[in-house]
Design goal:
Elements: E1 2-7, E2 37-41, E3 46-49, H1 55-61, E4 69-71, H2 77-80, H3 86-93, E5 97-101, H4 103-112, H5 114-117, E6 129-133, E7 137-140, E8 143-152, E9 155-162, E10 165-168, H6 176-181, E11 187-191, H7 204-214, E12 218-222, H8 230-236, E13 241-243, E14 249-251
Parallel strand pairs: 3-4, 4-5, 5-6, 10-11, 11-12, 12-13
Antiparallel strand pairs: 1-2, 1-14, 2-3, 7-8, 8-9, 9-10
Protein name: Phosphoribosyl 1,2-cyclic phosphate phosphodiesterase
Pfam family, one: Lactamase_B_2
Domain Metallo-beta-lactamase: 34-226
């Protein structure tokens, strides 16, 4: 299973508009972070998690042409506003796109993009999607998926366990029941916004603590703000944790 980190930035992206900080002005390409998303490729299936605003560029930059289904974590702008670009995948693949989310997120998708679901012809191309409410456990050929409820502040959203990997973005707290759903995983991408604590995201040290608690072979930090320099953060982390960056590919 190959996982490509398409974007690893927080909701502002990095660099942030009009910001003159050291990270935003950095020449290190690993400090350039589009909004957060991953692509999962197995022998039999291609899966995209979330449709961020830069989805088009993220797929082009990584030469990704095939997506069999999309999983949505929640409906915040940085995770959903590239949704219309699904239509290019429809055109290339010649088929509708199944999109899986919880009931609340599906409702928001219909509200944010009403023209996609209107009976009236909008006068332009629209994504051809099949909205499906996620089940607790489901399978896409050789990918076994578990929907894992987590908290993004007071908002319950979804993380996903995919075989022995978990994607835990926009996470501030994980209920004990959900921790049990993660037992036995070996790798994970974990939200780590900044060093300081935040009401809706994990800090770096909280993410490290979670990776330790899960006893992972390796953890990858994502959803990273401009307060964190890639190299400095990597130097701070133990050897079994890495700072993810846009375009990083891991094989597990």
């Amino acid at each position: 299973m190959q996982i490509t980190f398409l974007g690893t930035g927080t909701s502002h992206g990095v660099p942030v508009i009009a910001c003159d900080c050291e990270v935003c002005q950095s020449n290190n390409p690993k400090n350039k972070r589009m909004r957060t998303s991953i692509h999962v490729k197995s022998k039999e299936y291609n899966l995209l998690i979330d449709t961020p605003p830069e989805m088009r560029l993220e797929l082009i930059n990584n030469n990704i042409k095939n997506v069999d289904s999309v999983l949505m974590t929640h409906a915040h702008a940085d995770h959903i506003m590239g949704f219309d670009d699904i239509r290019a995948l429809n055109w290339f693949q010649g088929k509708e796109m199944p999109v899986y989310a919880d009931r609340k997120t599906l409702k928001h998708i219909k509200r944010i993009f009403p023209y996609i679901f209107s009976k009236e012809t909008p006068g332009g191309g629209i994504p051809q999607v099949i909205l499906k409410e996620v089940e607790k456990n489901f399978t896409f050929k050789d990918l076994n998926i578990t929907a894992v409820p987590i908290y993004h502040g007071d908002n319950q959203i979804l993380a996903y366990r995919i075989n022995n990997f978990a994607y835990l973005t926009d996470c501030s707290k994980i209920p004990e029941k959900s921790l049990k759903l993660l037992e036995g995983i070996e790798y994970a991408a974990v939200d780590a916004l900044r060093f300081e604590e935040h009401p809706t995201h994990m800090s770096v040290d909280q993410a490290v603590g979670l990776i330790d608690k899960l006893d992972l072979k390796h953890g990858y930090l994502t959803h990273i703000s401009h307060r964190l320099d890639h190299q400095k953060l990597n130097d701070y982390l133990p050897e079994y944790i890495s700072t993810a960056y846009d375009g990083l590919k891991i094989n597990i």
